[in-house]
Design a protein that fits this description.
With 275 residues, the chain is of the alpha+beta class. The chain has one domain. Helix content is 17%, strand content 31%. It is built from 4 helices and 12 strands, in the order βββαβββαββββαββα. The strands form 3 sheets. Strands 1, 4, 7, 8, 9, 10, 11 and 12 form an 8-stranded antiparallel β-sheet that branches. The chain has a two-stranded antiparallel ribbon with strand order 2-3. Strands 5-6 form a two-stranded antiparallel ribbon. β11 and β12 form a beta hairpin. 39% of the residues are buried. The N terminus and C terminus are likely disordered.
């Protein structure tokens, strides 16, 4: 019997290695499968895209922009002890932020659904996954995917420099020539900061990594074209808890940018979904 030809794929990592972005800021090592919440690390299993049982209904998406109010909230909230033993709760503040998130208006190409949130990184947390579908048809393949995790701790952990922390990632296939650009990391990071700045937001303690993976196939797979996947992982601290919805919108803008969608024309805004 003839021996089958070997097939292999070479992956070339450009820029920073795939490192964990701690909820407390900074790169903290290689991503691993598993939960390392005790150390404050958001691992790949926390941020990996997982199917959800709630969210925006499948089928043809509305031509109007969806709001996150279509998502059924699963608020992960637990009390925390202060240094003197007194239980610390700030549920009203987090509830107000959730209300603003639920009312946030995103571009109609962005499909949002809720996923399980990390339970031991902060007293309160919310996690959303997102996909960019230019056709607005939920059955089509997304051109970009990502995750938005909101954490709240009224004790204001020192590395956060505030009571709030946003942990995100955005990922999409990009043009092959992008993988050879030595400035791709800086460009990717600027997409995030530009999205925040264009909405007039203030933030602190930002941390993250931009990674490009260039894949070339050989042997039995040599007929495949080279592909490049770009991933932006970032965390930052919103300085105004009344603008959490706009931080979500900025992340939505980042998703659309990495997906290759053109920005909305000046003066044009997304409309909320009709109910």
């Amino acid at each position: 019997m003839a021996r089958p030809r070997a097939a292999c794929t070479r992956a070339l990592w450009l820029g920073s290695p795939v490192a964990g972005v701690s909820a407390y800021g900074g790169s903290v090592g290689v991503w691993e499968v598993g939960v390392a919440e005790e150390s404050g690390v958001v691992t790949l299993s926390d941020l990996a895209m997982r199917p959800a049982t709630v969210g925006v209904a499948c089928g043809i998406l509305s031509v109007d922009a969806p709001t996150v109010s279509d998502v059924v909230s699963r608020i992960q909230s637990r009390p925390r002890k202060a240094s003197g033993g007194e239980t610390v709760r700030d549920e009203s503040t987090f509830a107000e932020a959730l209300a603003s998130v639920h009312a946030a208006v995103l571009r109609p190409e962005v499909l949002i659904e809720e996923v399980p949130a990390p339970t031991r990184l902060a007293p309160s947390a919310l996690a959303l996954s997102g996909e960019v579908i230019p056709s607005r048809n939920a059955d089509d393949e997304p051109t970009a995917t990502g995750r938005f995790v909101l954490l709240h701790d009224p004790e204001e952990p020192e590395p956060w420099e505030g009571a709030w922390r946003v942990v995100t990632y955005a990922k999409a296939a990009v043009e092959p020539e992008v993988g050879h650009d030595p400035y791709v990391g800086r460009v990717g990071w600027s997409w995030l900061t530009d999205a925040l700045e264009q909405r007039g937001l203030a933030w602190a303690a930002e941390a993250g990594a931009v990674t490009c993976v260039l894949s070339e196939s050989f042997g039995a797979l040599s007929d495949r074209e080279p592909t490049v996947e770009m991933e932006i992982r970032a965390s930052w601290t919103p300085l105004d808890g009344h603008q959490i919805d706009e931080h979500l919108q900025a992340w939505g803008d980042l998703l659309c940018t990495i997906a290759g969608l053109p920005p909305l024309p000046e003066g044009v805004v997304a409309l909320p979904q009709r109910r």
